[in-house]
Each structure stands twice: as structure tokens, then as C-alpha cells.
Amino acid sequence: MDTGFTIDISLITKENERARPDLERDYDILGKQLEKRGIAIDEITKKVQEFAVALPSWGVGTGGTRFARFPGEGEPRNVFDKLVDCATIHQLTRATPRVALHIPWDKPENPEALGQFAESLQIGFDAMNSNTFQDQPGQRLGYKFGSLTHTDRSVRSQAIAHNVECIELGKQIGSKALSVWIGDGGNFPGQIDFRSSLERYLESTNEIYAALPDDWQLFIEYKLYEPAFYSTVVNDWGTAYYIAEQLGPKASVLVDLGHHAPNVNIEMIVSRLLQFGRLGGFHFNDSKYGDDDLDAGSIKPFQLFLIFCELIQDSSRGARQSPPPSYMIDQSHNLTDPIESLMNTVEELQRAYAQALLVDTQSLSTNREKNDAIMAMKTLKKAFVTDVSPILGVARQRSGAAIDPIRVYRGSQYRKRKGVERPAMGTTMTGIV
Ligand code: PSV
Ligand code: MN
Fold this sequence. Notes:
The protein is α/β, with parallel strands linked by helices. It contains 15 helices and 10 strands.
């Protein structure tokens, strides 16, 4: 398999040399400021360098809404093209070593060849994502009225078999997790029996769980609504937590930031799930109204920071009962160049993480003890308003990434080159959100 155009390392080196003097000066100044706060800047930089997040294969294609999809130039035509785009993001950020696949969108004819291709690009695979929220060509039974919770056992069996197939595929390419999100639910009061639909869900996922290898995890992803507009079977973290508890130790909850009603305190949900040892992972994104799939940190950067504060606090408590949460992005880009949006997201995640690392935990806990609400909040704000950009730049430089990934990307003409290599397919179907 040919990768086509790739960005030459010399462009990254040249751009980094240009940006270096300014960056080093800013890093120096910030280092001195942080030193006065008792923080060693290099320690933070090292942690940022270690930060990794998985890319969604479906995020590199141009997304759409339920009204329309406007295809972008040089979009990936198949899973191989998607991997090439993901590898480019990793080359420029050095923070996205794995890709999450969605089946059957990415179903490989030859899993071994796909594995080898990924290896040649120096990327690996993250969680497998099953899809029973759509009917696929040639599928025997339809999911219009549900999949894993359908009233008809034969539809449920088909959905279970699909999930088991995802596990089997994943085993061949080195994945270690299955993410399950279903669209099952109802539009009208009375349509669905709340209790029996959840019972059917548990029965179905138990069968999937039984097919899970010992070193795999099962992520249960919840979402309050959409496509169902009245009731959704796996609608909130409480339900997902209950499901994980019922299934066993390999099951945990996946928090997709866009899957909550506006104003929900997501950082507190994160804290609860960490406390109960059932936080499996994240689908990072941002939203204003619903599941908007906007770039992480673009609307609510403070919330993102607060989420990372909870994660850091948990990791510093030591003695974990469960594996560390898996970080994944889940976005759909319908206006921007997907590669730029994803690189932007990576940077915003690193920013929130670095800011959270600056929190004076001693002062926070003292203020909490004293019930000094203002000073407790100001302790957090002090970290949040610190401009950590020099840390992010130096972290990227030290990892061999581009100091300014979007600048290098634009300078490389990657998109234009892919436009030539990957001629438009001429379809304007409604896109997946
Ligand atoms: C559903 O909205 C979701 O968040 C799930 O993670 C899906 O797998 C993904 O988006 C793509 O539709
Ligand atoms: Mn998701």
C-alpha cells in the first residue's frame, strides 16, 4: 500500500529552527515565574510529552449534519487513507500514536495487511467501535427499532454477533478494547418499556462480555438523546455505571463530553466514576447545544481544565483499582479541515492537562478545609489563567514534533496534494455526526 505524499521531516526542522529563539525566550520567562510558585517547568514539559490521545478514524473525513454534508478536498477514501492522515497528525504532534476504528466503516478485507500498513506508519490501534445504529448494505435484519435491546431476539443476536466480530477483528490488529454505543430508544411516550429494554441490553452485553479476551476492556458509552428523541436506553452515567457493575471488572464507563445536557457538571461525573473505579475513558470534543462534535476546548476550556484537575488528583492518590482512563477524541468536522481540527484539539487537551498540573494542591486543600470558597476557586483560576503555550511548544520540539503543527501542515500543501491523489468520489450523501 502506498502512502502517497507525506510531509518531509526537513520542513518540520526548518520551521522549528525559525520558531525556536522566540519559544526559548518565552519558556525561560515562564520557567522563572513558575519557579517562584515552586514549580519546575521541565517536570511539566516532560508530563506533557508523555500525554497521548487516540484519534477517531471517522474524524479525518469531513463530517456532516443530518441536513447535508459538504465533502472536503482530498478526503480519505478508505481506511488506508485514514491511517495516512492520522499518521500525519502524529508526525506533527507526536501525541496521537493510536487510531480507533469504527466497524463496518473501516472493516478491512485483510486485517493482517492493515496491521502491517499501520506498523509501517508507526501507529497502532486503539478501541474498536461497533456500529448497530445504522443498517449496512446486505444486512439481514434492520435496526430501525433498536439493536442490542430490540424486542426481537433475532435482531439482538445479529447485533451481538457484530460486536463479537469487532472483537475478533481487533484481536488481529492489536486492539485491546471495544466501545459500545447504541442508538436504541424511542421517540414517543409509551413506545419503549424502560425496564425490559435495559434488561435486554444487559442480556446482550453479557454475551459480548463473554467473548472479551482477558486483557481487553469493554467501554459502555452513554448519551442522553439522539437519535431517540424521547427515551434512550443507555442515557446517562448512572445507567452506564450500573451496566458496568453488572457485567464485571473488564467493563467501565466511557464519557463522551458531548453526550450531556447543557450545564451538566461533567467534572463531577468524572470524579464519581474515578472514585468507583469505573471510568474507562473519554471521547473528547466540545459542544454548545447538544452533541455538536466541536473541537475540544473551543467552547468550554474551563470545564476541560476542571476535568483534567479531577484526573490528576486521582492519579496522585496512588493505588489504582482499575487501568488509567483511555483518552480518545470523538469529533466530526463539517466546516474545518479535519486534520487541522484534530491537531487543534490535541493542543487544547495538552493545554488543559498542563494547566491542571500547575494547580497548587496544598493551597487548594487548605482553602477547602477552611471553607474559603473564594480562595479555593482562585487557586484553580491561577493555574487556569497561566499561559502554558511555551510548555506545549517546547514539549513538541523535544518530542520531535512541529512547534506549530498547523503552520507546518499548511506550508506543506498536504491537503492540496491529497486533493490530486484522492479525486472526489462525487457523492454528497448525508454525513455521520
Ligand atoms: C455517538 O454520538 C458517538 O459519540 C459514538 O461514539 C459513535 O461511535 C460516534 O459518535 C460516531 O458516530
Ligand atoms: Mn462518542
